[in-house]
Write a structure and sequence with these properties.
Elements lengths: L1 H8 L4 H16 L7 H41 L11 H23 L4 H24 L1 H45 L3
Helix pairs in contact: 1-3, 2-3, 3-5, 4-5
């Protein structure tokens, strides 16, 4: 998971680096001369807590990244008619998965301070919802491209019709000026 974060962000988030540093700080305290067993156990427990925090934060980064990636996709394809794919089931399912992913993410964030393990599970579940969205998009890729092509074709046809209507309107206005308005006003 941390590899995924590093690969997608092209750097390692500072918050995670700090947690790793804290893990090793607590582990190094266990090797101090004369350290009591209870002191060592407390530091090992603190190191484990930082590991849990790393896992939790990594899931948050990944889930948030995938959500932003989907929002960008949605903006890019908003102008295309995707509701016709699979009799509307494609778009409906995608929106349902997005809602579920967001709901699970929000619930995980609300319990993360109380139950880190459960929050990690939920954040992973949220991430999976976005993975399902992109799998669905990839499976319907041909249909999405057809919708994109149809939009471009309709836009081109509308542009040509608009251009031709502009020419016809200009000719009509010129004829109206020459035949009706100019003689009426007694100009030229």
């Amino acid at each position: 998971m941390t590899f995924y974060v590093e690969r997608k962000f092209h750097k390692f988030p500072k918050g995670l680096l700090k947690e790793f540093r804290d893990v090793f700080d607590h582990i190094s305290r266990c090797y101090e001369k004369g350290a009591a067993e209870q002191y060592k156990e407390e530091n090992i427990q603190k190191a484990e807590n930082h590991f849990h925090r790393i896992k939790l934060d990594t899931y948050k980064y990944v889930s948030d990244y995938k959500k932003r990636e989907f929002v960008q996709w949605k903006k890019k394809y908003a102008k295309y008619d995707l509701q016709g794919i699979d009799n509307g089931d494609f778009w409906e399912t995608i929106l349902k998965l997005e809602d579920e992913g967001e709901r699970i993410f929000s619930e995980a964030r609300s319990i993360e301070s109380k139950d880190v393990a459960k929050a990690c599970e939920m954040l992973q579940e949220s991430t999976i919802k976005y993975d399902e969205i992109f799998q669905k998009i990839n499976r319907a890729r041909k249909h999405v491209l057809k919708a994109q092509f149809k939009y471009r074709r309709v836009t081109l046809v509308n542009g040509i019709i608009g251009f031709l209507l502009g020419i016809v309107a200009s000719i009509a206005a010129t004829c109206l000026w020459e035949i009706v308005i100019k003689p009426f006003l007694g100009v030229g």
